[in-house]
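<backbone_tokenisation>
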Amino acid sequence: MNIKDMTIRELEEIALLLRPPAQYIQLPFRLEQAYLICTVNKYWLGKLKRIYGNFLVLTHASWIANTGRLNETFSKGILSEYEVAPKDLEICVAIDSIIDAWQWNFELPTETQ
């Protein structure tokens, strides 16, 4: 088969086969540390329990609907609007969907606001 005759989908499948799993890639995350994570369509806040395949597994997590002013979020841990997930629920965030992530050095929310 000539590479010039391959479809984009076929090339993507080959690229996926050659890509190492996340556990073999050095990631800038520490277990038991809390993070505010911006994905392609949501913000998540939670404590990193483990890395499983290509997913970060968060506990004590919240979906952040509105961060408010980022200066207050980063300097004071103030968030405008969020929904807290049940404490024992694990949220799996696809590593490939992460745009930005920030270490969270404040208390994690325990009630929806």
User: Anything to note?
Assistant: The mean pLDDT is 90. Residues 46 and 108 are 7 Å apart (CA to CA). Residues 27-103 form a domain with the SH3 type barrels. fold (CATH 2.30.30.100).
